[in-house]
Write a structure and sequence with these properties.
Blueprint: H1 2-17, E1 20-25, H2 27-31, E2 34-42, E3 47-56, E4 68-79, E5 86-104, E6 111-130, E7 135-146, E8 155-166
Antiparallel strand pairs: 1-2, 1-8, 2-3, 3-4, 4-5, 5-6, 6-7, 7-8
């Protein structure tokens, strides 16, 4: 029991001393009509973990939109240097995504929208700039593959231009 209490205390206290960032994707609202919020917590100078939440605001019949209506994406980033301003990173992520797909209706004439839930495993690469005052800018791109449902899109994109603040 004492070991469990010590482990929980160490885990919670690690959040108090770690650098943290809150970010908003500025490209997605302008181009694709979606909002993406992110939180990132540094484990060390070379690695971090975080979570992003995507909310698609475009109508289902829009010609250019994400297939996902909502996506929750926990990720792990490894930074390739310890430079305090510019850094390149590689990222592994798992995207839990929810959306709608076109399914043939029972009458055989046309399609109906059916909901799906799936999980995508993927990788991304990017670069990050950190200003001395705490402003952060990162740009990244990558792809994931949905694993569990044949009704969901096969490929899930992970693209962004985030602007945020280091806490």
């Amino acid at each position: 029991m004492k070991k469990l209490v010590i482990l929980i205390t160490l885990f919670i206290s690690s959040f108090g001393f770690a650098q943290q960032e809150l970010k908003l994707d500025v490209a997605n609202p302008l181009i694709i009509k979606s909002l993406v919020f992110s939180y990132e917590n540094y484990i060390s100078d070379e690695s971090s973990f975080g979570v992003s939440a995507l909310f698609n605001l475009a109508k289902q019949d829009a010609s250019f939109r994400y297939n996902e209506n909502t996506m929750l994406t926990p990720y792990y980033r490894h930074y390739f240097s310890t430079n305090s301003q510019w850094n390149l990173f590689g990222e592994g992520f798992f995207g839990l995504n929810f959306g709608k797909y076109d399914a043939p209706n029972l009458g055989g004439t046309g399609t109906d929208l059916k909901k799906y839930t799936d999980g995508a495993l993927g990788v991304a690469v990017g670069a990050k700039y950190i200003a001395s005052g705490g402003l952060t800018i990162d740009v990244y791109g990558g792809l994931g593959r949905n694993l569990f449902s044949s009704n969901s899109p096969a490929i899930v994109p992970r693209i962004g231009l985030n602007v945020g603040w280091r806490l």
